[in-house]
């Protein structure tokens, strides 16, 4: 059994055993590999977003949270790649990290053969992107993740923001909503520095830090008007 097949089989075996814990030794015996190999495989699955939990001790082992995973899916390889292309458009958005983990969960829930075919098809697709350098990759990924949490948890967020003239300011913002188009994503919020609603282009946010304070509840309609020559519509979510 190759590693891809084993990873898929590991998830399905833990799903079938849940909520009972399975030891690394028992998994190693079942898949005829070393305990160390099982530990590496479990770590890879966890890093990919699969909700596998470990308990130490004599009665410990691994268990999978069935409520947060998908059963095997009947996605065709082409459908899975289509989802991957769509999710790739989230790069640079506040949900880029979640898009990556969502795709990993979808592929992990496919059959081993279909997953391998999807990866082979994806390897023959190339996407075009502009040449940009907005600082270290880790910082570029961290800012959208912080803003996602700020909106989801309705927490005031402190931004280091560079305006169109290149001037950097620090300001506390009460987040309200995200809006995005073809070229950029924006955070809409109430800026305490200006005492008014403001729209912040996410790729101009250099640093973002959550504060402990819960933001007052504000509606999108209360803080912004539709810009000219643009239709603002809600996200279709079925």
Concise description?
The protein is an alpha+beta fold and 238 residues long.
Judging from the principal axes of the Cα atoms, what is the shape?
elongated
Task: Give the proportion of residues in helices.
Answer: 25-40%
Residue-averaged pLDDT: 83
Structural class: alpha+beta
Number of strands: 7
> The biggest beta sheet, please?
5 strands, antiparallel
Low-confidence stretches: none
- Helical segment count: 8
Distance between the termini: 38 Å
The percentage of residues in β strands lies in 15-25%
What is the H/E string?
Answer: HHHEEHHHHEEEEEH
- Subunit organisation of the chains: single chain
Strand order of the largest sheet: 6-5-4-3-7
CA gyration radius, whole angstroms? 22 Å
Explain this structure to me?
39% of the residues lie in helices and 22% in strands. The two termini are 38 Å apart. Helix 2 crosses helix 3, helix 4 packs antiparallel against helix 5 (96-109) and helix 4 (77-88) crosses helix 6. It is an alpha+beta fold and 238 residues long. The longest helix has 17 residues, at 137-153. It has helices spanning 3-17, 24-31, 35-47, 77-88, 96-109, 112-122, 137-153, 220-223, and strands spanning 52-55, 61-64, 155-162, 168-180, 185-191, 196-201, 205-214. A hairpin with a 4-residue loop joins strand 5 (185-191) and strand 6. The strands form two sheets. It has a five-stranded antiparallel beta sheet with strand order 6-5-4-3-7, with helices on one face. The protein has a two-stranded antiparallel sheet with strand order 1-2. It is built from eight helices and seven strands.
């Amino acid at each position: 059994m190759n590693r891809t097949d084993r990873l898929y089989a590991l998830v399905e075996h833990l799903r079938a055993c849940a909520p009972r814990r399975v030891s690394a030794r028992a998994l190693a015996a079942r898949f005829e590999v070393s305990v160390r190999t099982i530990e590496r495989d479990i770590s890879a699955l966890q890093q990919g977003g699969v909700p596998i939990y470990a308990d130490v001790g004599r009665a410990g082992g691994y268990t999978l949270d069935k409520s947060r995973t998908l059963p095997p899916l009947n996605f065709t390889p082409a459908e899975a790649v289509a989802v991957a292309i769509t999710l790739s458009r989230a790069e640079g958005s506040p949900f880029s990290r979640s898009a990556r983990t969502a795709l990993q969960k979808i592929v992990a829930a496919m059959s081993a053969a279909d997953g391998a075919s999807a990866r082979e098809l994806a390897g023959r697709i190339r996407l075009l992107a502009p040449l940009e350098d907005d600082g270290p990759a880790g910082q570029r990924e961290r800012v959208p993740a912080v803003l996602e949490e700020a909106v989801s948890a309705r927490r005031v967020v402190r931004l280091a923001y560079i305006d169109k003239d290149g001037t950097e300011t620090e300001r506390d913002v009460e987040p309200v909503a995200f809006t995005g188009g073809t070229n950029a994503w924006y955070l809409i919020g109430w800026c305490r520095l200006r005492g008014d609603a403001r729209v912040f282009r996410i790729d101009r946010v250099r640093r973002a830090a959550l504060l402990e304070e819960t933001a007052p509840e504000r509606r999108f309609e209360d803080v912004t008007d539709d810009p000219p020559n643009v239709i603002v519509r809600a996200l279709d979510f079925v």
